[in-house]
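Sanity check record (used in CI):
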Amino acid sequence: MHATPTFEVKILDERIRAWGLPRYQSAMAAAIDLFACVDQPLALAPQSPAQLIPSGLAIHIGDPSVAGLIVPRSGTGHRTGLVMGNSVGVLDADYTGPLLISAWNRNAPGSSPLVVNPGDRIAQLVFVPVVRPVLRVVEEFSRSTARGGGGFGSTGVA
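Expected output for dUTP diphosphatase:
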């Protein structure tokens, strides 16, 4: 068992104290939910440009072997179409600024806008290990593989 790391968090929006610090929603949850710290309901039209929504937090990971990934909440993305405008946001270990959520309504044009209300849990933050290898330039790889340079779909072709 590894020791549980501790990361510093600044509360940038006092409503977080009333809503509760983001936390794991079950004993084995992989991520913490992030709140939308907007002042009033925000309508996201389908296929319109992504909007940056404050989470009300700043987190300092401070460990280069860890990164944070900001991803959609699974159910929300599937049921409503609210996903990340940048697919996945990366929180680097040395970033200490406000944690922003790039929110995008992926639904088809003509669909109803999605409304994000103050305090809605709209994204999740998962902490993942990071490997930072040294890259060594070579003319040929030291080992060959059965796949070799086979590209997209090459392992599924009969």
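The helical segments are 15-19, 74-80. If this sentence no longer matches the regenerated tokens, the check is flagged for review.
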